[in-house]
Amino acid sequence: MALITCNFFSEVLGLSTSMTVILPQQTSTQIGLNNRSSQSLHKTLYLLHGLSDDDTIWLRRTSIERYVAELGLAVVMPNVHQSFYTDMEYGNKYWTFLTEELPSIARSFFPLSDAREDNFVAGLSMGGYGAFKWALRHPDRISAAGSLSGAVDMAKHIKDPAYPHMVPYFRLIYGEKDIEGTDDDLLHVVKQLAATDAPMPALYQCCGTDDFLYEDNLAFRDACADADYPLTYEEGPGTHEWGYWDTHIQHFLRWLPLEK
To answer: Where are the beta strands (DSSP E) in 214-255?
Structure first.
């Protein structure tokens, strides 16, 4: 594998930012790894960070580089700060950056496929919300998505009085508006997509039963069931921590529709 720290300028954000990228490399003599590169334009996983982290965190807290080595899968990890992968009311347009500019820039730098069937997205916590939003709002570009302990019921979450410290963040992101029934409400978006003839990205969702976002995850699971949207759902003991995510990113990678 090749590991690249890429610093670049974003026209959408109007500032310099970074992404961390893992690229497949075919090797036969590297000790301890069975690296594979199966095509000239690589299948790509966009892997999204949570609220308190950045583009380096998946490498620092998990063995993601080792997990993807034998899959021939590129991994692009962007930095979006505390934006909730949204065009902020008072801030930068991180949704536009993520879904429009980032793939175009990454493909201009690296040999990444733009085919729908070769593009996937996953994330944890805030990143789980961003991953499902990307897949459900652009089903023609993403074929599969994963949410690990995701904040997947934001319409309810931003009104929850249990999180007063989050109110300033939510106002910067969404302003004063109620996002229920909008394109930032995943429960609404999954229902909308299921009622169309558009392709439905495969969805993988997991959450620990002791996680503070467990109820949010049940709400999204039930919304998928009500809409007859196919969903792979896993739950079990676990909290909001890296041991859980290190284990379940491996589950997600095994679940992905990759040709072995």
So the answer is: 232-236
